[in-house]
Amino acid sequence: SSHHGRCLALDEVEDEHIVNLDDIETIQGHSSELDNESNDQLNEEWGEWQLTFEEEFQNFLLSLENNASDMLQEEKNEWDYWIEKMQNKWSRFHGIMSESYKSYIYNKSATWTEADWKTWIHTDWKDYMEIDWHRWINDVEYDLDKLIDERWEQWKTHQIMTWLMSNWTDEEQQYIDKLEFGKYSNKKEMEHFVKRWNKIIQWKTEKWESWIQDKEGFITNIKNEKWLQWKDDHYFLFNNWRNDFIEDWISKKRWLLWSAGRRN
Fold first, then answer.
1. Domain membership of residue 134 as a residue range
2. What is the per-residue pLDDT across 111-130, written as a single tens digit (0 to 9) for each?
3. Considering its fold, how many domains does the chain have in total?
4. Which residue intervals define the domain Tryptophan/threonine-rich plasmodium antigen C-terminal in the entry (predicted)?
5. Domain for residue 204, yes or no?
6. Rounded distance, CA 67 to CA 71, Å?
């Protein structure tokens, strides 16, 4: 991008052309330090930009909340598909067990009573289902966090670049253009501008970082508010499904299939 190009050009000027900036005090009667007038002007500009940023940020938050809601709505469809997969998997669990685990259970359950089977399904088997739940829900949380973080980083990058490249005077803009294309004849004059440019960029960056730091909490809140309730709701649904599945398995004495498998 042009902004990136400007940064690169600036780096090149600093690396290749500047010999000793300390020797450069004034050029054309302007100090490279930020005087009171410059500070006042920058503070005034920052006050105006803050209002713009606040408005932009509120719009961004609304958009981000909608994005998060849309994604979780889509995950509801994935949820139905996942529960169906779970139903199929655990209905034929004896068929997908590893041979070592199957051998272990067959040997262990050789003398089990109905009560032993009930105890096992309410403990070990229930825990295995819980592991599947955690795998699935962690994937959903990862996708949501990724969506929010990427949009947040994009927004911050766009806003700070707009701020850093704003409010330059016509004269300063000419220097910037010369830097970008590497076309300048007065080396000392350009060195002076680069030094002043760096101070302004640093000043603007510090203002921005102080402002944006207070906004991180809003992003965390979107993650938590959207996510924690959704996760709780779906764990409730998962637990209901699991309990129903287990009760059905017990009522139909499905372990008899396993016992038959052991005898075979």
1. 2-14+61-263
2. 899 999 999 999 998 999 99
3. 1
4. 45-258
5. yes
6. 6
Burial (Cβ within 10 Å: 0-12, 13-18, ≥19) of residue 102: middle
Residue 27 pLDDT > 80: no
φ, ψ of residue 94 in degrees (nearest 5): -65, -20
Q: How far is CA 251 from CA 92, 95, 111, 117, 258, in A?
A: 16, 20, 20, 12, 15
Is 13 in contact with 192 (CB distance < 8 Å)? no
Q: What is the pTM of this model?
A: 0.73
pLDDT tens digits, one per residue of 198-246:
888 898 999 999 999 999 999 999 999 889 999 999 999 999 999 999 9
Mean pLDDT of 131-144: 96
Within-domain flag for 44: no
Asked if 144 and 226 touch (Cβ cutoff 8 Å), the reply is: yes
- Nearby residues of 64 by Cβ (< 8 Å), 6 or more positions away: 148, 151, 152, 219, 222
From the list 208, 264, 198, 259, the residue with the least C-alpha distance to 21 is 198
Residue 28 domain flag: no
Report if residue 235 sits inside a domain: yes
Residue 175 CA from chain centroid, whole number? 37
DSSP for residue 19: S
Give the pLDDT confidence of 145-158 residue by residue, as tens digits.
999 999 999 999 99
Terminal-residue alpha carbon distance, the chain: 69
